[in-house]
Amino acid sequence: MATLKKRKGGTLAGFIAGLITGLVIAVVVALMVTKTPIPFAGRKDKPENVPVSSTVSAPASDPNQALYGKGDTNRPVFTDNSVNSPAEQTAAPLVQPLTPEDKTVCYLQAGAFRNKKEAENMRGNLALLGFESHISEASSNTGNIYRVRLGPYKGNTVNSVQNRLKQNGINTTVTRPVKQ
Q1: What is the pLDDT of residues 69-97, one digit of tens each?
Q2: Measured between alpha carbons, how far apart are the two ends of the chain, in Å?
Q3: Where is this region: Disordered (predicted)?
Q4: d(CA 129, CA 118)
Q5: Closest-CA residue to 80 (of 100, 98, 103, 102)
């Protein structure tokens, strides 16, 4: 019987041959991808000879209409009573009148969510920062919207609270100023 000879270096040669084969396949695929034209790139969805209408179309509907709620949107938000007639300005009042900033009550809205759980998460984050907030539910054409609001705040306290929230990475919007 013949004795079997051990071959050395077969593993290394197979490994190198596999690497070279893989490299050749990768180069071929890369060349095919870069040289072939992009499908549907030359195709246009619209015909070129479409006449352009010269009339102005109606303005698009407001995309935030659902967020406004059911209140009267036509009533004025602020009425400026600080402009008085010259006769009233000369008389010195006995009591300092409140400035419009002192009469105004504002809320800060930290977010509006379609999912109540997301609104609860935002409310929890605000509670961890030391702010008391509440969730108000509004219905719209597309479903319910859950708003996370802080307040009411009077005067310039809104600005200081808003700055503190911004420092903690929470962007807010001043909403619903109501005259008392």
Answers
A1: 666 656 665 555 555 545 445 444 444 44
A2: 111
A3: 40-85
A4: 17
A5: 100
Count of the separate structural domains present in the chain: 1
Residue-wise burial string across 131-160, b where 16 or more C-beta atoms lie within 10 A, e elsewhere: bebeeeeeeeeeeebbbbbbbbbebeebee
What does pLDDT average to over the chain? Answer: 77
| More reliable by pLDDT, 154 or 68 | 154
Residue 94 is predicted with a pLDDT of 43
Residue 112 lies in a domain: yes
Helices (H), the chain: 10-35, 86-90, 100-103, 116-128, 157-167
Rounded Cα distance, 50 and 65, in Å: 33
Q: Which structural domain, as residue segments, surrounds residue 154? A: 106-180
Residue 129 lies in a domain: yes
User: pTM for this one?
Assistant: 0.43
Residues 6+ apart with CB under 8 A from 57: none
Residue 144 located in a structural domain? yes
Closest CA to 139 of 71, 82, 72, 77: 71
Q: Residue 112: which CATH number?
A: 3.30.70.1070
Token pair 């009425």 in the structure block, residue: 79
